[in-house]
Amino acid sequence: MKILVVGNGGREHALAWKLLQSPQVEQVFVAPGNGGTAIMEKCQNVPLAVDDFAGIGNFAQENSISLVVVGPEVPLALGITDALQSQNIPVFGPSKAGAQIEASKAWAKALMEEAGIPTAKSATFTDAEAAKAYVTQQGAPIVVKADGLAAGKGVIVAQTVEEAQTAITAIFKEGIGKSITQSPVPNPQSPIPNPQSPIPNPQSPVTVVIEECLIGEEASVLALTDGVTIRPLIPAQDHKRIGEGDTGPNTGGMGAYAPAPLVTPSLMERIEREVLERAIATLKKRQIDYRGVLYAGLMISPQSELKVLEFNCRFGDPETQAVLPLLETPLEELMLACVEQRLSEMPPIRWKSGACVCVVMSSAGYPGDYPKGKEITGISQAESTGAVVFHAGTKFDQTLVTDGGRVLGVTAVGENINSAKALAYTAVDKIQFAGAYYRRDIGDKAIA
């Protein structure tokens, strides 16, 4: 079978890499792909933007694509699944209606309340002054969230009331709390514009969600669902802050490991029962047929109290890079079972023993402004150690160069977190590009 993966990050490189391990997959195309997918055997980049639904649909038809796998949240929120399904193209990823669970934090909070899913106390505002008054009343620390998609960076954990109010001012001024466009599902014959970021809807009010600040450790549980049955993957832990010791601003993720020992078997049972199953049941009650990944970002308190921080409508990045190397069940079998709504018929998901650690190498300045075009060397030496280097912000420009904030995800499997971490950092040390930055504490929480 031939599969088309939509996206250009480390997550999409990891998906293509895992799909190609199956003898049933003869070729993977990636639109638009990156420097890593460009050189992978049986993989080919396609110069199509992630929201060029007409181009993606035509390519899938002309190349007999058996399955389209959507990586990023933006095309899902814009309705790529609806557009391709209208052409009878099988798609792994929820509809535009389902993708609201990530595209609007306010929508997700309302769904959690309806479903009885444990989550932080919150309030939603479309008026900056009302939001600031609420923050003054509640005190700090407090969490300010822009409602729309913000590539993992629209959340501010404010330690003071002043910091929270500054964040609210910035969100309303910059409009990052706006939902993305709510235009009708694009006609496959009429391509919509191809931006590199979500399209703000000028008619949508800027919205912020203000939440109580929860104390504990975060964990990520990615689950596969066909809209009726849900199967969690092994739990992972992301490292969102730029600085070691979880300091500095949020990023898209600076590294991850799996499995996360924080999520014990008994806790995973609760997550399935109290979070995942309730979410799918409530989506179904709302007549939303949700097929794809449901990702729950969780906060686990020192007393093992469980609360949902957020839901995402797609594979996590970099959690996917840490989870997929441990997966033994062919990935395309699981995805097709979701698309064809027969996940309940699948045997239990099989996993390799051991652990996996992914360390993200980023450009200097990320998550703020950063340079591009810096030559990257040492990847073959890094992979000679046994690690896998997933490309994210890279491209070929005569040589391999940086082309994004998060550049590479250096990933290694070991008998335990200790050995996986040691191998990952051995590989990291062999890679060079000007201004390369990475955290050296990925996995330390699990080891502790």
UniProtKB/TrEMBL annotation:
Keywords attached to this entry: ATP-binding, Ligase, Nucleotide-binding, Purine biosynthesis
Gene3D superfamilies registered for this protein in UniProt: 3.40.50.20, ATP-grasp fold, A domain, ATP-grasp fold, B domain, Phosphoribosylglycinamide synthetase, C-terminal domain
Chain intervals for the UniProt region annotation (Disordered): 181-200
The EC number(s) this enzyme carries: 6.3.4.13
MF term (GO), any: phosphoribosylamine-glycine ligase activity
Cofactor: Mn(2+); Mg(2+)
Catalytic reaction equation(s): 5-phospho-beta-D-ribosylamine + glycine + ATP = N(1)-(5-phospho-beta-D-ribosyl)glycinamide + ADP + phosphate + H(+)
Bias type Pro residues, positions: 185-200
Highest taxon in the source lineage: Bacteria
Pfam families registered for this protein in UniProt: GARS_A, GARS_C, GARS_N
Domain ATP-grasp: 109-340
Pathway the protein takes part in: Purine metabolism; IMP biosynthesis via de novo pathway; N(1)-(5-phospho-D-ribosyl)glycinamide from 5-phospho-alpha-D-ribose 1-diphosphate: step 2/2
InterPro entries: ATP-grasp (IPR011761), ATP_grasp_subdomain_1 (IPR013815), PreATP-grasp_dom_sf (IPR016185), PRibGlycinamid_synth_ATP-grasp (IPR020561), PRibGlycinamide_synth (IPR000115), PRibGlycinamide_synth_C-dom (IPR020560), PRibGlycinamide_synth_C_sf (IPR037123), PRibGlycinamide_synth_CS (IPR020559)
HAMAP family to which the protein is assigned, alphabetical: GARS
Family statement: Belongs to the GARS family.
Name assigned to this protein: Phosphoribosylamine--glycine ligase
Organism annotation: Floridaenema flaviceps BLCC-F50
Lineage, uppermost ranks: Bacteria, Bacillati, Cyanobacteriota, Cyanophyceae, Oscillatoriophycideae
Gene from which the chain derives: purD
